[in-house]
Specification:
With 383 residues, this protein is α/β, with parallel strands linked by helices. The protein contains 14 helices and 16 strands. Strands 10-13-14-7-15-16 form a six-stranded mixed beta sheet, with helices on both faces. β3 and β4 form a beta hairpin. The longest helix has 16 residues.
C-alpha cells in the first residue's frame, strides 16, 4: 500500500511522507493527496474541482502532464476551475455556468477569455484589477526581527495605513506561518510586533482582535467559519462585545449590523439565518470578509482572499479591498497568484525558506523578478 501511494505521489512530483497524519500537512499538500487518491481509482472519468487552488506552478505543470497522459489512455476529465488560463491550457471544451444554469458551451479553441468572463458574470467586467490610487498614512503595523526557529527567521517589515502589502513566495516558504504568529495563533520565540507605534504582546487571537487586527485565513472551512452556525452568528462573532448592554446582547442591533454587511458584500443567501456551510465558496469567503470588516480592523491580513472564488466575486473582493484602504485600513495580502499580487498591491514582500529576500515597489516589479526572489535569488544590484 505504501509503495502504491508513493508511486502515484511520485507521478505528481510530490515528495510527501505517506505515514504522516493528513492534519499535519499544508493545504497544498493535502490537495496533492486528494489528486493522487483520485488517480489510484483507475476511473474512466475523473471530476476535478479546483484541483490547483493550493498548488505551486511546478506542481500544476506536473498535474497537467499526468492529465494529458491519462487523456491519451482514454480517460475523460470534467475540470472545474475559476483560473481562466488553466481552462485554455488543459480543456478541449468549456461550459460556462451562472447562478446554477449552463449558459454557454464552446470549443476552447473558438472562444476568448473576454467572452468567457462576460458569460460568467452576465456583464462586461472592465479591467480585471481595479485602479489603485492609494494615500498612505502612518505605519499601522511594524514587525522587527520576528523569529521562530525552523519556521521563519529575522522577519522585518511594516505596512502603512491605506497600503496593500503583498506577501509572495512558493508554497511552504513560511508566509502563512509568519502571519499566524503575528495574529497569536502560533508561537514566535524572538522579535517584536508594533501596532500604532507601540510594542504589543500578542499570544492569542483575542488579543490581536483587541489591537484591531483581523485575519482572513486561507482555510475558511476549518478556521474561518463555524459551518453549522448561521451567517448572522458567524459575522457578529468578533464584534459581539460591542452589542452587549447590561450583560444582554442587543439582537435588533446585531440584526441590522449583519443585514448591512451582507448587502454591502453582496452575500447571496436566503437570509442571515441559513448556515455558513450551505453557501458556495465565494459567498463563504464574503461572510469571512464581512466578519472582519464589521469588527473595525485597522490591520487586515488576507491569506489567499480569492482562492476558489469566481471572476465576478473576485472583482467585488478587489473593489472592497480598495474601499478599505481608502478608509485607512492597512492590508497584508498573502497570494500565490502572481498576477493578483502585481495587480492589487503597492509593495511586495517575497519570502523564501522563512526569510524575506526582498521588499519591492509593485510598480518596479515583474513576474520574473518576483520569482527570482521567491526561489532564493537576489535583487539586481542596480535596483
Amino acid at each position: 500500500m505504501v509503495a502504491q501511494a508513493n508511486k502515484y505521489l511520485g507521478q505528481l512530483g510530490a515528495d510527501i511522507d505517506v505515514t504522516q497524519p493528513i492534519a499535519s500537512l499544508s493545504v497544498g499538500r493535502q490537495q496533492m493527496i486528494e489528486i493522487a487518491k483520485s488517480l489510484m481509482t483507475d476511473a474512466k472519468i475523473i471530476i476535478m474541482d479546483e484541483p490547483t487552488a493550493a498548488l505551486t506552478e511546478k506542481e500544476i505543470n506536473q498535474l497537467f502532464s499526468v492529465v494529458n497522459r491519462l487523456k491519451e489512455q482514454g480517460v475523460g476529465f470534467i475540470y472545474i476551475s475559476h483560473r481562466m488560463e488553466e481552462i485554455f491550457e488543459i480543456a478541449d471544451k468549456v461550459t460556462v455556468m451562472r447562478d446554477g444554469i449552463s449558459v454557454q458551451e464552446y470549443a476552447t479553441a473558438d472562444v476568448t477569455m473576454t467572452q468567457l468572463v462576460r458569460d460568467m458574470v452576465g456583464r462586461e467586467i472592465g479591467d480585471f484589477y481595479p485602479d489603485r490610487h492609494p494615500k498612505f498614512g502612518d505605519v499601522a503595523l511594524q514587525v522587527e526581527h520576528l523569529t521562530e526557529k525552523g519556521v521563519f527567521n529575522d522577519v522585518s517589515f511594516s505596512v502603512r495605513e491605506g497600503e496593500i502589502l503583498a506577501f509572495s513566495g512558493l508554497m511552504g516558504a513560511g508566509r502563512t506561518e509568519i502571519m499566524r504568529a503575528i495574529f497569536g495563533i502560533d508561537h514566535y520565540s524572538d522579535g517584536q510586533v508594533i501596532v500604532d507605534g507601540k510594542p504589543v504582546k500578542i499570544h492569542t487571537p483575542s488579543q490581536a482582535i483587541a489591537h484591531n487586527i483581523g485575519f482572513l485565513t486561507e482555510n475558511r472551512k476549518d478556521e474561518g467559519l463555524i459551518l453549522e452556525d448561521s451567517l448572522h452568528d458567524n459575522i457578529v462573532l468578533p464584534s459581539i462585545n460591542g452589542f452587549v448592554k447590561h450583560g444582554i446582547v442587543d439582537d435588533k442591533a446585531t440584526d441590522e449590523f449583519v443585514d448591512m454587511l451582507m448587502k454591502r458584500l453582496t452575500v447571496k443567501a436566503m437570509d442571515s439565518s441559513v448556515t455558513a456551510g450551505s453557501l458556495s465558496g465565494g459567498n463563504q469567503q464574503k461572510v469571512v470578509l464581512a466578519k472582519w470588516v464589521g469588527s473595525g480592523s485597522k490591520v487586515l491580513i488576507l491569506d489567499e482572499p480569492t482562492r476558489g472564488v469566481d471572476v465576478g466575486a473576485k472583482r467585488e473582493i478587489y473593489d472592497l479591498m480598495n474601499e478599505l484602504t481608502d478608509r485607512n485600513v492597512a492590508i497584508i495580502m498573502i497570494s500565490s497568484d502572481l498576477p493578483e499580487v502585481l495587480g492589487m498591491s503597492d509593495r511586495i514582500a517575497v519570502v523564501y525558506e522563512g526569510q524575506i529576500t526582498g521588499i519591492v515597489d509593485t510598480a518596479d516589479a515583474t513576474q520574473e523578478s518576483v520569482m527570482m526572489l521567491a526561489t532564493g535569488g537576489k535583487k539586481d544590484a542596480t535596483d
